[in-house]
Amino acid sequence: MVQLKALDPVASATADFIDYVDKLFNCFNSRNLCSKGPMAHPLSPSSGHVAFLQQALEMFKSIRCKNKSGNLPCLSGWQLSITCLLQLWDDLRSNHDTKYLLTARLNHDCLENLFSVVRGKGGRRTNPSPREFRGAIKQTTVDAILLTGEGKNCQEDIYDRRVPVFL
Prior knowledge:
This is Transposable element P transposase-like Protein. The protein has 167 residues and is mainly α. The protein is extended, with a radius of gyration of 23 Å. Mean pLDDT is 83; it is low at 159-167. The chain has five helices and no strands. The chain has two domains: 11-105, no CATH class; 109-166, no CATH class. It has helices at residues 11-27, 49-62, 73-96, 109-120, 130-146.
């Protein structure tokens, strides 16, 4: 838009920053081995992610805010996330011979979903006792294993509802 003179030339700095942060989000959201953008593909030894992340870390460290602390929680969060990703990648590559890392899988959404289902067992208990939690997690596990879902290419098993006793 700046090149088309639809925006003031000073807007190019903002556009560059937005593009940079977009690439940073792509670094943390890689899902497929083949992606269009260079930062959207998996982290690998030759991907350029490490250098980009180190540069982003330094950029976030250099930002100063005009408030009491001189920083914003999101900036500290980015620094922590970048540092953790770099350390994880270094460990996976050095100690586990990992070839690439799909970073979108590094989240706790699955765990949050599991706890949501567990809370739903027994009437939305937000603070179950250990015994109630154990029973709910067992039932959730059995449900996930034995119940068929829509679109599966197998028939539903007919099983005795007492199966969870083995857990």
